[in-house]
Amino acid sequence: MVNVAATYTVQPAESTPNEILQLSEIDQTKTLIHASTVYFYRLNEDIPHSYALQILKESMSKALVLFYPLAGRLHEIGGGRLELHCNAEGATLVEAESELMIEDYTIQGFVPNEAMRELIPKVEYHATPIHEQPLVLVQLTKFSCGGICLGLGISHILVDGISAMHFVSEWAKIACGEMTGIFPILDRKILRFGEPPSTPKFGHIELTPPPLLVGQSDNMEERKKPTTVAMLKLSKQQVDELKSKANEDTPYKNTIRPYTRYEAVAGHMWRCASKARGHKNEQLTRLHLAVDLRNRIQPPIPKGYFGNAVIRQAAVATAGDLLSNPLAYASSRIRESVEKVTDEYIRSYLLVVNQQDISWLRNFPTEGYSLGSFYGNPNMEITSWTSMSVYEADFGWGDLIHMGPAEMGFDGKSFIIPSREGDGSLMAAFCLQTDHIGTFKQLFYEEI
């Protein structure tokens, strides 16, 4: 469906520092893939596709001066560790065309499925040495209706979602001829705290292998099972109903600070997944959450820090407790896990991962891959984009119709995304085993 017309290497427009950057411990724990997103636009009538491509090339080249580490390459240094060579080798830009129309994706609800994956450049991770893999991959696809899609992949070793959005926002400003806003802070030493304590002060279950299904000794069979992705919308009214439900007068009600819409929606998703999977009462299930450290460590990380400043945290419950108790129970487990992440907890976390060999932390979150931790059945992972400015990618060529994940690589992976309308509604993108997704979709609305 998608035909590649040309492939370009885009290098920084000016000379940039030629240096080796040491990665932070948090960078070192991230997955060896590119985090992929898609941006759909309707081109203004007076802007031809060729001009949009030229805008993209020129602005990208200028953006790579400010964000010059993204033009470099990662190199292995042993023990699963990496270092970043800032050598200006450049990013990859692919020009492509598709016979489809934007409406074809609209009808499907912009579900991140196989058709969506064709809108981002492909990487043969297992066949290409890591020092040959560009850190930024961009594909500009022209549709038969005249609209376009900007498909973007950025190495997760270098950035979290907040930093990725920072790059896209500044890149778009450059494309529009505007002054850049927040300059990136590239020094990874910000996340080094000097001499750490001799032993961790906390258990850090988030760094241990996730629970297995009751009666199974490994997760190899679960890894092989086919998955299906759904994109489900929650209206503002439905979001408010879930929030009210989480704050009903139950033994788990928090009288000091009511549960947030995120805690309510995430708890609802966790419960629906466990029920759809048919878990036994004694089944342990772990919900993995992304927690931003920027204002949780002392001193706080400066605004504009460009790197990973998010760690995975885990809420744990048995399926029996999750389903027999009200929604507030799930929300309380989520809040408890997030509130653990204090300055002291973060320093303890960094001590655990500050080891010579961290290969035990490395994984490829892709369907069917057999190495690394598996976060699927009976577990799940939720990433929330509700606090990020995901719709600020205005390159000056037309209206942004949709922004979202381009792919979801494993069972249990999910996103909570603010809707384009800005009316308080949310989108929930969810990947589950094909045998479970139908029941999940039904429960998702019935149990509000």
UniProtKB/TrEMBL annotation:
Domain of life: Eukaryota
A GO MF label: acyltransferase activity, transferring groups other than amino-acyl groups
Keywords from the UniProt entry: Acyltransferase, Transferase
UniProt-listed Pfam families: Transferase
Family: Belongs to the plant acyltransferase family.
Entry protein name: Spermidine hydroxycinnamoyl transferase
Species: Fraxinus pennsylvanica
